[in-house]
């Protein structure tokens, strides 16, 4: 068995979850941002994983025959959500009625996303450590002759 595939799958999973954490942190950090550098309001973003993940049996057959694991394609896209209107007549970006348009970041949804990304990252670390332990044990067994 080629353990590099197991390492690659875990590494890809950790990379995706790290990106989810970064995007979630960016969304939360900009919850109160009325304008960006370009003068436009901040739009929340999300990580989208594109992957025509085949059935487990197909993946297993590919790995068993010496192939490589199919890794997902990841992109970040801007969410098209309506801004939150907050009454703050003294704010420099308030409109004529006194409302300020803040990004439509869903705080609770972002926290759920954060928690899920952390747990998934941890699961990938556990899988990586299990593959590492199996590789070490195989080396110990094979080296004893």
Automatic annotation (TrEMBL):
One Pfam family here: Flg_bbr_C
Keywords, in A-Z order: Bacterial flagellum, Cell projection, Cilium, Flagellum
Location in the cell: Bacterial flagellum basal body
InterPro entries tied to this protein: Flg_bb/hook_C_dom, FlgC
Domain Flagellar basal-body/hook protein C-terminal residues, every copy: 97-141
Main location: other
Matches recorded under PANTHER family: FLAGELLAR BASAL-BODY ROD PROTEIN FLGC (PTHR30435:SF2), FLAGELLAR PROTEIN (PTHR30435)
Self-association and partners: The basal body constitutes a major portion of the flagellar organelle and consists of four rings (L,P,S, and M) mounted on a central rod. The rod consists of about 26 subunits of FlgG in the distal portion, and FlgB, FlgC and FlgF are thought to build up the proximal portion of the rod with about 6 subunits each.
Protein family: Belongs to the flagella basal body rod proteins family.
The protein's name in its UniProt record: Flagellar basal-body rod protein FlgC
Gene it is expressed from: flgC
